[in-house]
Amino acid sequence: MNLRATHDDRFQQLRSERRLGRLVGPLTLLGLALTLAAVLVSAAAARNTGDTETLRQFAANRDDQLVAASLRVAGLLLSLPLVLFLQRILVVRDPTVPRGLAIIGLAASLLIAASTMLGWFALRDAADAFVGREYRTEREALDASGLLTAVRWIDIVSRLLFASWLAYASLRASRVGLITSFLGLWGLIAAFSGTFLAIGDALYIGWAGSVALLALGYWPGGRPPSWTSGRPEPWNVPPSPAVARPDDA
Prior knowledge:
By secondary structure, this protein is mostly helical. The protein has one domain. It has helices at 2-49, 54-60, 62-93, 100-131, 138-143, 146-176, 181-196, 199-216, 226-229. Helix 1 packs antiparallel against helix 8 (199-216), helix 3 runs antiparallel to helix 4 (100-131) and helix 6 runs antiparallel to helix 7.
């Protein structure tokens, strides 16, 4: 009876994960698409002015930059379900995963979203002051903004928190076999480079997109066995005897 109950519990667990994955995967991919759109909108707006001064560029394109900031925030909010989903499937396979891991990921994402919007308001005010000749140089206008200083600190803290979440989540997901060793290493590189380098954002997009595809059930050559067994099974270890799959129900 206990074995039967355990089998049924795992079967229901896998069915639940499959249903959630079908929701989380598309939301994550949509969020990543919005993030890429934000980058393109912001870059296009900067090119269109032809001005070499950052604040004058911003003043001439504030509406476009607001659209870009809004797209980025929307993309970040759509990534929150992935944080919760990954926490849920990790804890099932490894109960030693800290429950606070998801809190760190959520807090980091929300702080990044906050710094993005606050940054737009701070740059708007600084640009208005500079264009209105309240300051002689851009540096004076930027240094005089207390809000911009706060945004910089929020950005630093949020990036450190996000890097911590991404690195730890990648490591634990790789250990239990939810992602390949290569994808786990990719996540670690994205975490550390994202703290200091702009390329870290691009690496994260690749990592999150891959996890979203795994959540949807797609992966070249099939998903790692832990997705269908509900147990920790490192990718390079032969899979355990098959259990009933939610796809077969």
